[in-house]
Amino acid sequence: MQDYQTFLQQKSHLVGSFGFKSIWLPDSMFDHQKYTADWTIRKGRGANFVDTGLGKTIIQLVVAHNIVRKTSKRVLILTPLAVAFQFVSEAQKFGIEGVEYSKDGRYKGEIIIANYERLHYFASQDFEAVILDESSILKNFEGATKNLITSFVKQVKYRILSTATPAPNDYTELGTSSEALGYLGYMDMLTRFFKNNEDTISPANIGTEWILKNHARENFWKWVSSWSLSVRKPSDLGFSDENFQLPELIINDHVVKNKQPLAVGGQMQLFAMEAKNFQQLRAESRATLEHRCEKAVELARSHDTSVYWTNLNDEADLIESLDSSARQIKGTMSIDQKEELLVSFSRGELKKLITKPSITAFGLNWQHCAHTTYFPTHSYEQWYQAVRRFWRFGQTRDVVADRICSDGQTRVLLSLSAKATKAAEMTAQLNRFLHQDYTISATPFSKPVQLPSFLCA
What we know:
Rossmann fold; alpha/beta; globular; seven-stranded parallel beta sheet; 457 residues
């Protein structure tokens, strides 16, 4: 019985009233950073949908410092791999003390930085707040890790989510954020605002099971704006963009010809056909693997520093054999081994890196690099996060992104373009309803429960 009670506690949210007036905002912060930090502190539980390079790191550290000063209790900040050292460096820059990176659950500081993969070393009751850096990364974890994170968060008073891509592929992903913060549950959100998608042809709707109800669109965005703050540039909040101008992003699409036409329905095709489902896309990737990898190495050869983004192990292995200056991050490596390679590349010691978007596309600042090769998939989030490692505020050079696909994968490029438009629409809607309240009230159930007659006998 005790085990079941524990299970129920893990499923429930710690409830109450949250947020307080900010105690300290550094003068050296930009105006939009001060505004976002102050909003977050007053909210107590909220999401910062702030774009890359706008200062999410210092915003999170200032929020954590305020909570420590208010409560005299600890704050845990969870980050992707190799991002923790950036938090420690930023804390030193702004004079925020008590920030410590823990790899094993042992610590003495007040603001503890840890990787998501090491959360099992920590206990929720030891922290007054938890901040999830690059929170959209949650869906990349396997079930056990994801469940551990969500159950941990539910037991902590102050909860902050921070990401540049809150719902990159599907608006329903916002339900994960809402549920983690203790607002509307994922299934409740679907019932209230969404309907089943019957249009699976439009590029923007590929792989999308749910779409917004027409009559609920405005209320949906009002509701999301009630617990989140979206910032793509300082002017979204009424401040100057003067110090936040991006260099040019040069996207080159290279189409490799597939010399082995796909077999559709068991029949070999006379001409190369466009891949339309997962099985065909996978077959297309395998059939053109060698030519795509050779093209990637050819394009990277003229750049001193570059990142190869791959999807398959065989792609990464072949590129590593073709480019002797490149090192590969493998899924089989230990966390420490992966981190060592990522830090080495971030410091400029390693010139060429081979990795997957699912492993290292989040949170890392690679403005020292201005070239990348990319094998596109239908995931807009992976594409956006991968290219924004380089193309971000603070980059001084134009960034070249070489996307390489086969002639049977061009539908993927259309999908990415449509999803980019969809992401821009989301930002516009969230900014439109900035500061507007939208309350969902629970309807009390007051009717007496009437048992069926056969149970009353």
